[in-house]
Amino acid sequence: MSQAPSPPEAPAWIEVVILAPEAQAEAAADFLVTLTGLGVEVDDFADPPSPVRVKGFLPAGGDLAAQKAMLTRYAQELGQEAGQEVLVSFQDLPGEDWGQNWKKHFKPRAVTRGLMVAPPWEKAEPGPEQRVIVIDPGQAFGTGQHESTTLCLARLERLAERDLLPPRLLDVGCGTGILALAFLLFGGASAMAIDLDPEAVAATGHNAGLNGLAERLEASGTPLEAIEERFPLVVANLTAKDLQELAPALAARLAPGGELIVSGLLVMQIQAVRAALEAQGLALLEQDSLAGWASLVMG
User: Fold this and answer.
1) Please, what is the average pLDDT of the chain?
2) Were both Cys, which of 92, 142, 201, 237 would link to 11 (CB 3.0–4.6 Å)?
3) Domain 106-298: assigned CATH number
4) HEC letters along the chain
5) pTM of the entire predicted model
6) Residue 257: pLDDT above 90?
7) Arithmetic mean of pLDDT, 166-179
8) Per-domain boundaries in the chain
9) CA distance 216 to 167
10) Are domains 13-98 and 106-298 of this chain identical in fold?
């Protein structure tokens, strides 16, 4: 008696490939990191007009359809911002652990004039005027290479250069804690970093230890609305949707005369986010952009 063939083994992983213009490639890479909790591979081709290939991996879980839909929508938004098509494709893969492959792509890098970000497994060689912040992202978001993070870091650096950095900061949606840690390295006295993701809280605490800043940084999963303290400086690198929803709570955590730095929004989303914050009585102090991403400073 012949035996019926075994059904094909279900894929353990789905390969995601995004083909994006060079200016949008890092944004696509960080979006994939945020969505999957894993690293990505970026192939930067020599010919500038050619798209950059960003490759990541989705575990074949129950929310796969939602993740695919989210990636497809994101590629469309990125394409609108770039003025050209951004392609995304999916391919089933056999079981394999891709969780460590991304580390070879995270190298020491200057993210502002005076700040270099480096992983703990690479030796950093900073310039004479550069500080180094060591970041082990783990499963959290924030290596300093995304444009929205760079915009926030640049604002913190400018405040420090002008001797305007206040003594205390609140980092909302801290990820790896990079913004709070940079604030402390630039001269801030203490910081609170919050995130609803336990992996992010753990990563922030770990990175504070790597940089010798654990005693000056409090990391927790406390919701923003539950915090009673008011801060002279609040930074929130979130999505435009989150910023609009959290606008009342963000404004309520800001001390009189304080400054709120927000990023994570596209240039096309500036007006909506600004309007939500202005509705809370805040005024625009500064606006900046980088490769299609924007930051607002409100006070």
Assistant:
1) 85
2) 92
3) 3.40.50.150
4) CCCCCCCCCCCCEEEEEEEECHHHHHHHHHHHHHHHCCCCEEECCCCCCCCEEEEEEEECCCCHHHHHHHHHHHHHHHHHHHCCCCEEEEEEECCCCCCCHHHHHCCCEEEECCEEEECCCCCCCCCCCCEEEECCCCCCCCCCCCHHHHHHHHHHHHHHHCCCCCCEEEEECCCCCHHHHHHHHCCCCEEEEECCCHHHHHHHHHHHHHCCCHHHEEEECCCHHHCCCCEEEEEEECCHHHHHHHHHHHHHCEEEEEEEEEEEEEHHHHHHHHHHHHCCCCCEEEEEEECCEEEEEEC
5) 0.71
6) yes
7) 95
8) 13-98, 106-298
9) 11
10) no
CATH classification of 13-98 is 3.30.360.10, yes or no?
Answer: no
Q: pLDDT tens for residues 209-241?
A: 999 999 999 999 999 999 999 999 999 998 888
Q: Summarize the confidence of residues 238-264 as an average pLDDT.
A: 94
